[in-house]
TrEMBL record:
Subcellular localization, as worded in the UniProt entry: Cytoplasm
Organism: Wenzhouxiangella marina
Name of the protein in its database record: Phosphate regulon transcriptional regulatory protein PhoB
Main function: This protein is a positive regulator for the phosphate regulon. Transcription of this operon is positively regulated by PhoB and PhoR when phosphate is limited.
One protein family per Pfam: Trans_reg_C
SUPFAM superfamilies, sorted: CheY-like (SSF52172)
């Protein structure tokens, strides 16, 4: 779990720092935001694996922020846990209707928070597991940072690894160069779109040694996709 990044959107600095401290002790990488605007910037730049979201924020409510995340194709799959002092059933229903994955009432123990985070991550992992995704004999393990092709190790650089991980967890969808830059490099990194082509070429070259380059497909005029369907 040490590579998982948590975004904490909480306007109370004392609470935010306490949560961040406990999460870092548990091995998470933590990004902090004091309001929804900072939260959106952090989502774009840091690409968190999960968002801890306060209900009452100065510029927008937590449920409104959650709904905006769910409407956006690029952020719709990020799990969200709502943190709030509201404990009424109607409030919980409103929270879940906004698209959140779990709801924790303040005050809460740090052990409970970490356990709930891990439970949500297990439920929302694209492959149903925390650390591993697989496609027709191609296996990517996040924890060990290894890729195996029919049991044989695939030699990938860090950028190619991130790109393959994104592709394997978002199969059969076409992504433009700009979208891949946002998802693989992050929104705050300024890289030319042609850089994507270079790393696609490197990824294909590494996979070609094992016969898996056919999964990384060019869609003329649109971008790239990863698909085992129709690959020959």
């Amino acid at each position: 779990m040490s590579e998982r990044r948590i975004l904490v959107v909480e306007d109370d600095e004392g609470i935010r720092k306490m949560i961040a401290f406990n999460l870092e002790r548990a091995g998470f990488d933590v990004v902090e935001a004091a309001d929804c605007h900072e939260g959106r910037v952090a989502v774009s730049d840091q690409r968190p694996d999960l968002i801890l979201l306060d209900w009452m924020l100065p510029d927008q409510s937590g449920p409104e922020f959650a709904r905006s995340m769910r409407r956006d194709e690029m952020t719709g799959e990020i799990p969200i846990i709502m943190l709030t002092a509201r404990s009424l059933e109607d409030d919980k229903v409103r929270g879940f209707e906004s698209g959140i994955d779990d709801y924790i009432t303040k005050p809460f123990a740090s052990r409970e928070l970490i356990a709930r985070i891990k439970a949500v991550m297990r439920r929302t992992s694209p492959a149903g597991r925390d650390d591993e995704v697989e496609a027709e004999g191609l296996v990517l393990n996040v924890a060990s940072h290894r890729v195996l092709a029919n049991g044989e190790p695939v030699d990938l650089g860090p950028t190619e690894f991130r790109m393959l991980r994104f592709f394997m967890t978002h199969q059969d969808r076409v992504y433009s160069r700009a979208q891949l830059l946002d998802q693989v490099w992050g929104g705050g990194v300024y890289v030319e779109e042609r850089t994507v082509d270079v790393h696609i070429l490197r990824l294909r070259k590494a996979l070609a040694k094992h016969g898996f380059d056919k999964f990384v497909q060019t869609v003329r005029g649109a971008g790239y996709r990863f698909s085992v369907t129709g690959a020959s």
